[in-house]
Structure prediction request, 171 residues.
Amino acid sequence: MSKIKKIIQNLYKSFTVTGLPVIFGLLGGIGGQGDKWTKTFVLPFIFFICVLIELKSLWAIWTLSLIGCMFCGYGEKSFLRKLFKQNNILTRGSIGILISLAFIEVPILKGTWIIYLLGSLGIILTWALISHRGFGEFKVKFFGKEYNVLKVDFLSYSILGICGNLIIFRG
Prediction:
């Protein structure tokens, strides 16, 4: 029975490392094109489930603070944009910092601070330096609806999936 359990655990970890970043990229890209619920609620909930499974602790609920992070915008009415007077590296980097803080329970409980710092650095740099670039778009069908997904959104949310999973599972 322990061999089967180990195989299932390995398959689960393989999926979270390879499959989730692609799913995150698609959901984040679709969320950027109108169906905001995909990035605002679905992504944080997936991360919450992953943290809950890995930590086996109710502290995983802190991960749901990602919902608030996904509500942070950088548009004209955004609090952060008003604070920094424009949509710049500081505005977007601040969102990266907030996203990283949503994973703080992982190193607190696991003691994996170096991996947390590396994953957080990836998230912060992605949001600060990449998330506002224009790389074009591609079409994707989701629930029977066609979306023009921005490649930068796909890339940013895929990197979030990679760094988030690094923080959760590799520590």
